[in-house]
Design a protein that fits this description.
By secondary structure, the chain is α/β, with parallel strands linked by helices. It has eight helices and eight strands; from the N terminus they run E-E-E-H-E-H-E-H-E-H-H-E-H-E-H-H. The chain has an eight-stranded mixed sheet with strand order 1-2-4-3-5-6-7-8, with helices on both faces. Strand 7, helix 6 and strand 8 form a beta-alpha-beta unit. Helix 1 runs parallel beside helix 7 and helix 2 crosses helix 3. It is globular and about 55 Å long.
C-alpha cells in the first residue's frame, strides 16, 4: 500500500488490491487526529459509470469531511466500456473489505461504516448495501444516496419526462448511453446489483438517507426506492432540495451535497446511526 501526496485536496492516497487489479482511493480527513474516529464514510463519485468525475466530487468531499468531522474514503472505481458491470460493483465491495482491514491506517475504530455516493456513485452505494447484506459483510451502519441512478430501464416518470423535453433530452440520451456501455448485456438491466430499484429482496438493509432534487430526472427513482425500502421494513429518511441553476452538471450535483440543508441532514443521519 503506497502513501502519496494528492493535489486534489485529499490528505492521502492509497492503491489497494481490488477484484481484478489495483484500486486507487483517496482519504479526506475531517475527524480529529488525536484519536481514532467512530465513523468512516466510503463515498463513490458520479460520472455515469463511464467518466472519472473525481474533480467534481473532491471539493464536495472536503466540505463534508470537515463539516461532519469524519474521514471519507473515495475510491476511483473501474469504468465502462473498458470494464463494464460488474467490475465496479466488485471493486466497491473490495474497497469496503480493505477499509475494515486497514482501519488503523484510516484513523478509524472499525465500528460505524457508511456508504454514500452521487448519481452513478449513488447506485454503487445502494448496490454495496445489497452486496454486503448478501455476502454477510462488511456490516454497514447506513447508506447515503444523493440523486442516485437506480433504474437502468429509465422507466420512472421524471426520466421519461426528461426524454420528451428539449432542455433535458440530451441528458436522458447520455444516461441511456452510459447504461448501454455499463451494461452491454441487456439482461443485466434487471439485475439487482445494476438496478437496485428492481431488486425483489430489499429487507435487512441499513438505514438510508436519500436526497433528491425538484426537477431532477432521477428524482422519481429516489422516491420510488425510498418507498420500496420502507415497505421492506427498513428505516428511510428523505430530503428534497430545490432545483439548482444547472442540474445537468455533475459538478452542480456534487455541490448540492456540500450545501445546507444537505450537509445538516447528513450530519444528523450519521449521528443518529452510530
Amino acid at each position: 500500500m503506497s502513501d502519496l501526496l494528492d493535489p486534489s485536496g485529499a490528505d492521502e492516497s492509497f492503491d489497494w488490491p481490488g477484484h481484478a487489479g489495483q484500486v486507487h482511493v483517496r482519504l479526506f480527513r475531517g475527524a480529529p487526529r488525536k484519536k481514532a474516529n467512530e465513523t468512516l464514510v466510503v463515498f463513490f463519485h458520479p460520472g455515469g459509470f463511464v467518466v472519472d468525475d473525481t474533480e467534481a466530487s473532491d471539493p464536495c468531499l472536503r466540505v463534508l469531511a470537515d463539516a461532519c468531522e469524519i474521514n471519507i474514503l473515495a475510491p476511483c472505481y473501474p469504468l465502462a466500456p473498458e470494464r463494464p458491470f460488474p467490475a465496479a460493483v466488485e471493486d466497491a465491495h473490495a474497497v469496503l473489505t480493505q477499509a475494515v482491514r486497514h482501519r488503523t491506517k484510516l484513523g478509524w475504530k472499525g465500528t460505524h461504516l457508511f456508504v454514500g455516493g452521487v448519481e452513478a456513485g449513488g447506485n454503487l452505494a445502494a448496490v454495496s448495501a445489497l452486496v454486503c447484506r448478501d455476502r454477510q459483510g462488511p456490516e454497514l451502519a447506513g447508506q447515503i444516496l444523493v440523486t442516485p441512478m437506480l433504474d437502468a430501464n429509465l422507466h420512472c416518470p421524471s426520466m421519461r419526462c426528461a426524454a420528451d423535453e428539449n432542455a433535458t433530452r440530451k441528458l436522458a440520451r447520455d444516461v441511456e448511453r452510459s447504461y448501454r456501455l455499463y451494461l452491454p448485456n441487456p439482461a443485466d438491466r434487471l439485475h439487482p446489483y445494476a438496478s437496485p430499484l428492481h431488486a425483489s429482496r430489499l429487507g435487512n438493509l441499513p438505514p438510508t438517507l436519500i436526497v433528491h432534487t425538484e426537477g431532477d430526472p432521477f428524482s422519481d427513482e429516489g422516491r420510488a426506492y425510498a418507498e420500496k425500502l420502507l415497505q421492506a421494513g427498513n428505516e428511510v429518511a428523505q430530503i428534497t432540495l430545490p432545483p439548482p441553476e444547472d442540474i445537468l452538471d455533475n459538478k452542480e450535483r456534487c455541490s448540492l451535497a456540500a450545501d445546507d440543508p444537505c450537509v445538516t441532514a447528513m450530519r444528523q443521519f450519521l449521528i443518529d446511526n452510530q
